[in-house]
Amino acid sequence: MTPLEAAVVGGFIGGILGVLGTLVTAYYGPRKLEEWRELRQEEREFGPRKALLLQMLSNPDEPIRSLDRLRHVTGTSPEECRRLLIEIHARGVVMSGGREGWALIEHYPLDRASEVST
To answer: By mean pLDDT, which of 3-7, 37-41, 63-67, 104-108 is the weakest?
Structure first.
């Protein structure tokens, strides 16, 4: 390979590496940073709520709680509360009167009936 060919190939490879480096630092870096910040914010905001939901559903005297009570205690909207319940491995059940209830899967497995008389 002549020095001219080596210079052209080296310039081409350097240009590609420069574009890739710019892409990583200008696009993926800030994107990952923003995802990390959102995750930390969510942990700060919802971490105590998840702990409270776990504590309420771990009570052996009342393993099934209504969505209304869970929402009221945690101060969440129905959608937020359902998302948090799914994240802590809870399942939905139908309580007496057609009310929506939730229980931890470890205490009320999926093979049990989804309608309960509490």
So the answer is: 37-41
Tell me, yes or no, if the pTM score tops 0.70. no
Q: Which of 65, 45, 77, 78 is nearest to 108 (CA)?
A: 65
Whole-angstrom distance, CA of residue 42 vs CA of residue 89: 18
Torsions phi, psi for 104 (to 5 deg): -70, 140
DSSP 24-92: IIIIIHHHHHHHHHHHHHHHHHHHHHHHHHHHHHT-TT--EEEHHHHHHHHT--HHHHHHHHHHTTEEE
Domains of the chain in start order, with CATH, are: 3-104 (1.10.10)
Contact 46, 77 (CB under 8 A): no
Q: Tell which residue, 97, 52, 44, 91, has the closest CA to residue 71.
A: 52
